[in-house]
Amino acid sequence: MRAFAPGSVTAVFAPAETADQSKGASVAIADGVVADVQRAEDESAARGAPVVTVGGEPTAFEPVEIALRELDVPARADLTAEVPIGSGFGASGAATLAAVIAANGEFDLALSREEVVELAHRAEVEAGTGLGDVFVQNRGGLVVGDGGDPRKFERETPIEYSSFGPIATDEALADDDLMRRVAREGSATLDALPDDPSLARLTRDSWAFAEAIDLPTEEVRRAVEEVEAAGGAASMAMVGETVFAVGVEGVLQHRTEVCPDGAELR
């Protein structure tokens, strides 16, 4: 059984004492992750240690493994990523959500969509790879708020991006000083957004947020300057050495668009 989950770019986030209280602003993109889940040949081994591959190569992928172990199914999950892993595209959340959706169908588990999303979310939080990516990946479009009752705005808008390398999400989330800055500046940025923000407005505010928390590298800054010189708006994906932009064409390396639909079986 195959399932697809869109990638997502988190423009702003504000962690809280518990992951379920965290909030942010994220947009789902058409580039994502496909999970092909099948019954493993060695069923007993797979129940304790699910087999996960990325691009055909066996890979340790903790949130997917956590989710499949909790489902207690003898699963093999083959992942195909259309976005760089660990670079701010929510690839871990997309892979986990797609894998759980596919396993739910492959093993006739009859889990509700809410149960599927909650399981993927818990696995991400436990693995330290994300705080709420799966919520926007489940819904699609632009989601502003928290995972419980977000405001959603769909935009079929082109987005360009360039990725210069990963930033370890688990290390960033474990940096207490950084997270204090993120919580303070992220909350202020989100509170200042209008009720129906355009993607351009969100991107500009996101860049001010990224600078306030002192996260951008020189390479990121140069890419943002190039976009702004071309008349667009750009910012840094949270958390990755990645620049995303709107309002330009051919400035950054890759071009995709907002995905108005959420994760689904294929």
Our count of domains comes out at: 1
Averaged pLDDT: 90
Largest sheet: 8 strands, mixed
CATH class: Alpha Beta
Q: What's the order of the H and E elements?
A: EEHEEHEHHHEEEHHHHEEEE
Q: How large, in whole angstroms, is the Cα Rg?
A: 18 Å
Number of continuous helical runs: 9
Q: What is the number of strand segments?
A: 12
Dominant shape? globular
CATH topology: Ribosomal Protein S5, domain 2
N-to-C terminal Cα separation, in Å? 8 Å
The CATH architecture: 2-Layer Sandwich
Helix content: 25-40%
Residue runs with pLDDT of under 50 for 5 or more positions? none
Percentage of residues in DSSP E strands = 25-35%
Computed structural class: alpha+beta
Characterise this structure.
The chain is an alpha+beta fold. It has a single domain (1-266), classed as Ribosomal Protein S5, domain 2, CATH 3.30.230. The protein contains nine helices and twelve strands. It has helices at residues 43-48, 62-71, 91-106, 113-127, 133-139, 169-173, 176-192, 199-212, 218-229; strands at residues 2-14, 23-39, 51-54, 57-58, 75-81, 142-146, 151-153, 158-163, 233-236, 242-246, 254-257, 264-265. The strands form two sheets. Strands 1, 2, 3, 4, 5, 6, 7 and 12 form an eight-stranded mixed beta sheet that branches. Strands 9-10-8-11 form a four-stranded antiparallel beta sheet. Helix 3 (91-106) crosses helix 5 (133-139). The longest helix has 17 residues, at 176-192.
